Amino acid sequence: MIMSASMKERNRSLSIAAGIAYASIFGFSFLVTKGALNVLDPMELIFVRFLVAALLMTLFVLTGWQKINFRGKKHWTLLAMCFFQPVLYFICETYGVNESSTSMAGIIIGAIPALVAVLGLIFIKERTTRGQTLGLVLSILGVATVVLAGAATTSSGQPKESTPRGLFFLLGAMVSAAFFNVLSRKASDTFTDFERTFAMMWSAALSYGIIVFVRWLTGSLGTTPSLQRLSFPRALASLVQRSASVWYAILYLGILSSVVAFFLINYTLTQLKASQSSVFSDLVTVITVLAGVFIRKEPLNTMQWLGAALIVFGVWFTNRKDKAVPAVSGWHSND
Fold first, then answer.
1. What's the sign of the alpha-carbon dihedral 300, 306, 310, 313?
2. How many folded domains does the chain comprise?
């Protein structure tokens, strides 16, 4: 399909707005996640949020508001995409962050766009310009500055040390997120943004549902020791009751952080290069820091402000309009 210059520019502008929007949604999610984790196990929270998301997207299909068609299409790219994100990514991130220092986790997760650029070049032949490469570097440096400066001012006593297993899981999260960006970009040739998001929500709901069920049966799940001794029916009733007590967090994470945010991610990956789209994830750091300052009245030092500025400039450099973008054979160009 050949698009006019005005249409391409419109799509580009919308994709940048979508990138800022999903970064903002993820950036504010910490405000509700912490409260939910006080009553739900991390695996339970992930399961419930994606179950809500999957049911909502199914409702869209049943009411005819959206249509899906998976017949006659090659599914391996879609299945691999869903495996890396959200299934594998959230497992790696959950355990990696739990067993690593804040600075280590922040820097490794912040480096995801760089790995996306490398994988994009290898697998889908997407090359970055000098300006885009500079933007990626600035963004990663910004994340490192914010995280390290924050760790230096907020740590009390001995800083938390990263375990080898924690580092392994964080690297797994980085690789998972990077492969997701590349695979979603490739899958956009065959599947719509809604179809990719629909598949992601159900794959996560089913996968984490199995994990929660198995851990219930083995008695290895629960925020309190008494919960671990409950039978399955009582454990399920307890999950519903505890989820209802933090309904606002479930709705935010299930609707905004899952359905809306991942749909926007898939949309940007349809319109932009994988490296251009993924760099918006570093904006999450800026949004989170600013939310902490203005909503929770947390202090912010000069180096953190500098790091935030580097991230913003990095995102701008990565997504600014080039005078000429050479086409890459074997891959469509929408940007």
1. positive
2. 1
